[in-house]
Write a structure and sequence with these properties.
Elements: H1 6-19, H2 25-35, H3 40-47, H4 49-69, H5 71-93, H6 115-119, H7 122-151, H8 156-181, H9 186-193, H10 196-205, H11 213-242, H12 247-276, H13 280-297
């Protein structure tokens, strides 16, 4: 539909999130948080693994489709995948005739801090700012990794294959962190996991055409582990510190804050790339964000 018009592209990218509001993590992390207490972190991580599987497989699939049929085929592939999955789930999950709906959760399952009170709580904004810094950095790394790898001389297929490691490490980080936050103090686990992308940025900082491929894979994997940990940690911290009474609004506000950072990040990184002529400035900013953000989370204190 774009027909060479960037306006159509902007319109499509604006409408798409509105159409898909029901598929956001606010919906299904709330469902999981209501039904799991003791192993909530692990349950959240398993549910959130779908994005990691997609990130591992989609780059190579998109590269193949676009190379064979053109860039439009990439968008058609993106459209077909959720449609097929959605129809499959509907066919499997539609209630049978006469089937009664599941009983609603009791009111006691949704105890917690009122929305207005949480807005006045320092810990809520520490969580938002700390994770917002990390998400902005990881988003910048995720969108620039393939161009950066191509810029040092790797062919498109090899750059996409290396970035596929991002998805695998995302899954590993997600499940690993999900299990750990059930047993250990979550902000401490977060501080370690979310600082790993900073190490990845430093590895990329010295990369050139002679850099061994395993080192590039390791750098990508470290960024992926941090990316996998972020949503687990965010959902767990909001539910653990502020309860489930107004979880939907609180987690929705948190996602709005980190999304704002994700919107600003590409423009900021584009300006850095244009003015510096390379990726070094972007990598240093991302590394700093992935150090400062985790340090802020360490100030959240004990669970209520």
């Amino acid at each position: 539909l774009m027909q060479g018009s960037i306006g159509w592209m902007y319109l499509g990218n604006f409408v798409l999130p509105l159409v898909g509001l029901g598929t956001t993590p606010v919906t299904w992390t709330h469902i999981v948080a209501l039904r799991f207490v003791r192993h909530r972190g692990l349950a959240l991580s398993l549910v959130l693994c779908g994005t990691g599987i997609t990130a591992a497989l989609l780059p190579s699939l998109m590269t193949w489709a676009m190379g064979r049929w053109g860039w439009q085929a990439g968008y058609l592939t993106l459209a077909a995948l959720p449609l097929v999955m959605w129809l499959s789930l509907c066919w499997r999950s539609l209630p049978q005739r006469g089937q009664e709906p599941a009983q609603a959760q009791s009111a006691t399952a949704a105890n917690g801090m009122p929305f207005a009170q949480a807005l006045r709580d320092r810990r809520f904004w520490v969580c938002n700012i700390g994770l917002g810094l990390v998400v902005s950095a990881i988003y910048g790394m995720a969108t620039n990794t393939v161009p950066m790898l191509r810029g040092i001389g790797l062919p498109p297929a090899q750059a996409s294959a290396i970035f596929g490691v991002f998805g695998v490490s995302l899954i590993v980080g997600r499940i690993g962190v999900g299990g750990l936050i059930d047993r250990l103090w979550a902000p401490g686990v977060a501080a370690v996991a979310l600082a790993l992308p900073a190490v990845g940025c430093l590895l990329f900082l010295g990369a050139d055409a002679q850099t061994p491929i395993p080192l590039l894979i390791a750098a990508t994997a470290l960024v992926g582990v941090g990316s996998g940990a972020e949503f687990d940690i965010a959902a767990y911290l909001v539910s653990r510190y502020f309860g489930l009474r107004d979880y939907g609004r609180l987690f929705g506000l948190h996602l709005s804050v980190v999304t704002l950072g994700s919107i600003v990040a590409p423009f900021a990184f584009s300006a850095l790339l244009r003015n510096s002529g390379g990726y070094s400035a972007i990598l240093m900013v991302c590394a700093a964000c992935c150090v400062l953000g985790p340090l802020l989370l360490l100030t959240m204190g004990r669970y209520p």
